[in-house]
Amino acid sequence: MILFLRFQDFKEAQGAILNNEGDLQMLKTIHTPPEDFFCFVTQAFFTNFSQNDLQAIVVVIGPGSFTTLRTVLLFVQSIQFLKQIPVMGIYNENNRSIEALIEDTQFSLDYIKKNATEHVWPDYGSDPNITIAKHFM
User: Fold this and answer.
1) Closest CA to 24 of 74, 115, 97, 114
2) Global pTM?
3) Which residues pair with 17 in a beta bridge?
4) How buried is 121 (Cβ within 10 angstroms: 0-12 exposed, 13-18 middle, 19+ buried)?
5) Distinct helix (H) and strand (E) counts, the chain
6) Measured in Å, how far apart are the chain's first and last C-alpha atoms?
7) Where do the domains of the chain lie?
8) Where is the Gcp-like domain (predicted)?
């Protein structure tokens, strides 16, 4: 089983389960803040599938919201560390749906293992503006 996560902004989050050949088995879309992502993933997927069946994760690494990407990547890397499974990050410049992304690429377990990296890093698509002075009135 492969978990596929696309959480690029505050407006929409998607998660999917693919079989080891990369075929879509389940897809969920929600509108929730990043702090609820963990609950979304565990309730939506691990109530229907065993965590022991999880063999790989595909996660969109950007571009997107700083908070959203950091939250989902922390979650993904925690699972990667605990389960010692491959994780593959992909860049989704046009914020395409999971269905559209899997039409272009067959995310089979073998493909993910070949393209997995030890760590996945967010690619925000812009520089942070946290150090820019803000003027409040």
Assistant:
1) 97
2) 0.86
3) 3, 26
4) exposed
5) 4, 5
6) 52
7) 2-115
8) 48-90
Helix or strand run (H / E) with residue 26: strand 24-30
Decide if 31 contacts 12 (C-beta within 8 A).
Answer: yes
Segments of the chain scoring below 50 in pLDDT: none
**Cβ count near 117 (within 10 Å):** 12
Q: Going by C-beta distance under 8 Å and a sequence separation of 6 or more, which residues neighbour residue 13? A: 5, 6, 7, 29, 30, 31, 32, 37, 40, 68
Reported as a single tens digit per residue, the pLDDT across 27-65 is 999 887 777 777 877 787 777 777 789 999 999 999 988
Q: Please report the pLDDT score of residue 130 as a whole number.
A: 63
Nearest CA-CA partner of 8 in 62, 74, 59: 62
CA–CA separation, 4 and 60 (whole Å): 8
How far from 53 is each of 18, 48, 61, 66, 83, CA to CA, in Å? 11, 11, 23, 30, 11
Question: What pLDDT is attached to residue 92?
Answer: 95
**Tokens 């999971």 — which residue?**
98
- Report residue 82 as tokens: 């605990």
